[in-house]
Amino acid sequence: MLELNTTRQPGGPPPPLPAPTPPGTEQQAEGAGILLQISMLVLAFVLGHVLRRHKIYYLPEASASLLIGLIVGGLANISNKETSIRGWFNFHEEFFFLFLLPPIIFQSGFSLAPKPFFSNFGAIITFALLGTLIASIVTGVLVYLGGLTYLMYRLPLGESLMFGALISATDPVTVLSIFQELGTDMNLYALVFGESVLNDAVAISLYRTMASVRSNDSSGQNLLLVILSFLETFVGSLSSGVGVGFISALLFKYAGLNVENLHNLESCLFVLFPYFSYMLAEGLGLSGIVSILFTGIVMKRYTFSNLSEKSQHFASAFFHLLSSLAEAFVFIYMGFDIAMEQQSWSHIGFIFFSILFIGVARATNVFSCAYLVNLVRPANRQIPMQHQKALWYSGLRGAMAFALALQAVHDLPDGHGQTIFTATTAIVVLTVLLIGGSTGTMLEALKVVGDGHNGRLGDHMSLGTDGSTGPSYDEGTSSGSKLQMTLKEFHSTASLTALDRHYLTPFFTSQNDDENPDEATQNSRRITELEGHE
Q: Which end of the chain offers a freer environment for a tag, N or C, measured as fewer CB atoms within 10 Å?
């Protein structure tokens, strides 16, 4: 095949133009790419249904989606269509952060069960804030020291801390699905779920703070200023999300949209508010992920009860659908990208020692935070060692770590970013496939499932006359001692409950005083659970 010489000679005629692309070729290629993506999504959902129906726990849905992407990417790699297929999957981290991640994070906050979450709120905040900070610093310092001692690829301290921040983002979607199937303790589920939801937001804020410090070349900057920068981003994002949620509650309370002929308008406005919260925070230089998370929590608590019944059904089904599609696509793309991208496998030592350091950092995080929580908890509310081990084992890495690693490829110099990306993808595959697939065996070995375990997920938790959740970690203490310990343990929670019941709920919702403010939330959760088990 002859090639055209496009080099122009001095004084000669201009080089010939390349042959024009036949009309419709680009559209045909894009159509083929979309068809391939839809086919993989269909296969992932059908395979996930078959796995659930036959109770095959060693291959969870997320692992199946990841494997589908790996297989398709591997086949493309050994074929002569690699370049064109790679073009069909022109996926960037901006697409992930702007379109795929927001519905996943919003659904996490929107589907949060308020009673077990707030009854364990202190422990969840400790694990998510302090624990993530500990895991990030321990991982970053160990990676830096490993480079200094020539155990692994050497990274500067700032870049090591960035790696520690991005890899501290846990994504136990695989573990949580098995928790639901096997009927795990409600408090354990609340701890794992609550920590993972807030952990993503904290990890993003930490990563951006570390990246900002590195880009400003402020290695000698006061540590206090770095912490203040992180808190400013986190608290500002939280306030933005809560504010948008409260505004939406007031709008739906007083606008009178819950009438028969305005259901479409009501549903459209409800769907737009989460993205408004996300884009507002991003526009202000804050974290959209943190903002949309707390918007989801507030909108479920206050805005949701102001909707008509039809709109409540639509909202629950719509966000559950979006989240499921986004999660499946993310895991498929991760598998595809791992097989197609050029990986820096020359630094196997970096990957091996990173996995070891992450395990050490996760253990330091979980056991130290559990120790602190148990210091202030009464005897019947202690986090048992079995639950601490389950928490440590549940620290899978997934979509968030992968997306931040993609971002690191652009943020860091050539070589460093690619090495971090390769290590992150290897860690994601190993944790999702190995740890996710062995979760059922782990839960049975730790004896945190079974009919004899109190407070199992799926069972009715003991509720007081005021709707508060009673302790599930029961040591057989007397009724008087239980009451006294409960009053001590939940003093701050009771204050929040009283504030919510007497001031926030009457002001932001249209419920009557004698109504249970959680009734709409419980009905919606039942709808979501039924949809999830279909």
A: N
